[in-house]
Amino acid sequence: MEHDAHTHHDHDPHTRHAGRTGHAGHTGHSDHSDHSGKVSWSMAAKATLHCLTGCAIGEVLGMVIGTALGWGNVQTMILAIVLAFFFGYALTLRGVLAAGLDFRTAFKVALAADTLSITVMEIIDNGVIALWPGAMDAHLTAPLFWIVLAIALAAAFVITTPVNKWMIGRGKGHAVVHQYHH
């Protein structure tokens, strides 16, 4: 069947709170308001991993649903991509809603924070899967499916981390979300 493995998320800072800790693995990201571009690779990797988590959940769920319904590769891939964006944004929404933002504002923050990161992840992971011989037709029970999915997600992580580092250094991407973390 089809496989789409994507994960990504970045977040932008509009209002920062010095000394605050992030959510789900984002502790220690305090004030980034200088936007000097001096962002650690560790911070960028954590932001990317956050995005990757939501994307991977959506991708795998989309593949499972598409396979269970007997859909073709294209339909399954589309569903997996849609769900990857949904779960990627949902993880970010969860954190900013918990910080007290209203839904409309939280949704805008999630869009600003995650769109580029998720897009890059989806292009990379789906590209790997689409180009890997036999991967698109491998079933969920086949080792090839899971091996290629893992490779695709790893490639998406490696390629998206520098993108997130660049975005955070400019006060965009994951930096936006960190301003709302307690």
Supply the key terms.
mainly alpha; 182 residues
Could you please describe the fold and organization of this structure?
Residues 1-36 have low confidence and may be disordered. The chain is mostly helical and 182 residues long. The longest helix has 29 residues, at 103-131. 63% of the residues lie in helices and 0% in strands. The protein contains 5 helices and no strands.
Largest sheet: none
- Name the quaternary structure: single chain
Could you estimate the helical fraction of the residues in percent? Answer: 55-70%
Total count of helical runs of at least 4 residues: 5
Class by helix and strand content? mainly alpha
Shape: globular
**Please, what is the average pLDDT?**
79
Report, as a whole number of angstroms, the end-to-end distance. 42 Å
Computed over alpha carbons, the radius of gyration is: 16 Å
In short:
With 182 residues, the protein is an all-alpha fold. 63% of the residues lie in helices and 0% in strands.
Helices and strands in order:
Layout lengths: L40 H28 L4 H26 L4 H29 L11 H27 L4 H5 L4
